């Protein structure tokens, strides 16, 4: 381009300075027009080069930003409950939870979960701020991964998947509260392996429960034994194994066993085993969930209170009419002192209600509740929940 412009300029100057006859006005005009055309072409070429360079820089910056952001994941869930049982009314933002994860490589990732319970924490306040998950997971092979850190114990239905839009009922079922102390997390290491298509096995070694001691007397209430990995006593570790079958669409079958050498963390040698089994089946809108869980505690102190046997089950049929509306009924029976034959400590609870999903990740809930047995009560529950 520069060479062509120089030729035009040279031609113009030679016409002016040469001894030959002076160029006509028409010839001068043509030469000037040619030069101007070359100048305009040069300007356009420079503009295109600048735009191309700018686009290249923007593309590089976008690529760098996308690369970083694609490794970071963020999400969460929450639920608000209104409970009216035996004229005792309460409203509570029960859970506000945030997830955060990071993908270091295709095979190494980090996941965490931070929760605020009951909206407000601090001295004399009802809530707690809890770190429920924080672990690193590594894929060893295409079929096997290992993880280490603070993670959810692989037992039951809700302990690992408990976001409000994923289950019926305002409150979680009482079996996975009083027998399996959901939400239940511990610290340690675990391995998950795909044995065959739709068949997986989990095994974990982790911290264990420590049931409370009041003036030298132990209360073997399982839920109150959660240490939540807060400077937890680690004298007695626990071992959990689970096998899960999902090869048939809509069907999930799973069973787990946990062994802990001492629920009192080195004081009474209270050996304990937890057994669970559950089934989930969904087809053409119809669904059913059923779960059994039971503790067998080998301790004279636990036997004195009848707490050496603690178990329960629930059955929950449901029907989902469409993506937005579903109904359910749940019947639960549990006993945290099933070994006590002198008094009735068995609890029974029935819930009937519906879920409304205006969006797949947003749910409004209502259910009627009836309690009988060791603790009577009737009423209803309302709730709203979300996940993202």
Automatic annotation (TrEMBL):
Gene3D superfamilies: Porin. Residues 25-59 form a coiled coil. Residues 1-20 form the signal peptide. Keywords: Coiled coil, Signal. This is FlxA-like family protein. It comes from Kangiella marina.
């Amino acid at each position: 381009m520069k060479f062509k412009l120089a030729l035009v300029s040279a031609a113009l100057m030679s016409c002016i300075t040469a001894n030959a006859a002076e160029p006509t006005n028409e010839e001068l005009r043509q030469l000037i027009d040619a030069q101007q055309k070359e100048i305009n072409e040069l300007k356009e070429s420079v503009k295109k080069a600048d735009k191309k360079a700018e686009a290249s820089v923007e593309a590089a910056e976008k690529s760098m930003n996308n690369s970083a952001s694609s490794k970071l994941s963020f999400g969460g869930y929450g639920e608000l409950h209104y409970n009216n049982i035996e004229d005792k009314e309460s409203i509570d933002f029960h859970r506000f939870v945030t997830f955060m994860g990071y993908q270091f490589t295709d095979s190494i990732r980090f996941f965490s979960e931070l929760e605020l319970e009951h909206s407000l924490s601090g001295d004399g306040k009802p809530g707690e701020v809890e770190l429920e998950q924080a672990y690193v997971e590594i894929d060893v092979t295409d079929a096997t991964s290992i993880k280490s850190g603070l993670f959810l114990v692989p037992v039951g239905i809700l302990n690992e998947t408990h976001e409000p839009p994923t289950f019926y009922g305002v409150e979680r079922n009482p079996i996975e509260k009083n027998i399996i102390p959901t939400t239940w997390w511990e610290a340690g290491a675990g391995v998950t392996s795909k044995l065959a298509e739709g068949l997986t096995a989990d095994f974990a070694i982790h911290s264990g429960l420590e049931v409370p001691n009041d003036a030298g007397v132990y209360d073997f209430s399982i839920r109150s034994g959660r240490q939540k990995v807060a400077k937890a006593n680690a004298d007695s570790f626990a071992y959990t194994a689970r096998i899960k079958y999902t090869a048939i669409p809509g069907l999930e079958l799973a069973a787990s066993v946990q062994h802990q050498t001492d629920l009192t963390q080195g004081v009474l040698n209270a050996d304990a085993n937890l057994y669970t089994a559950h089934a989930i089946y969904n087809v053409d809108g119809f669904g059913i969930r059923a779960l059994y869980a039971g503790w067998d505690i080998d301790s004279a102190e636990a036997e004195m209170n009848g707490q050496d046997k603690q178990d329960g089950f629930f059955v929950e049929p449901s029907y989902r009419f469409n993506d937005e509306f579903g109904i359910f009924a749940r019947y639960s029976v549990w006993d945290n002192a099933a070994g006590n034959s002198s008094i009735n400590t068995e609890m029974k609870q029935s819930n009937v209600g519906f879920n409304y999903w205006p969006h797949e990740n947003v749910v409004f809930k209502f259910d009627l509740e009836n309690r009988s047995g060791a603790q009577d009560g009737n009423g209803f529950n309302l709730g709203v929940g979300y996940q993202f």
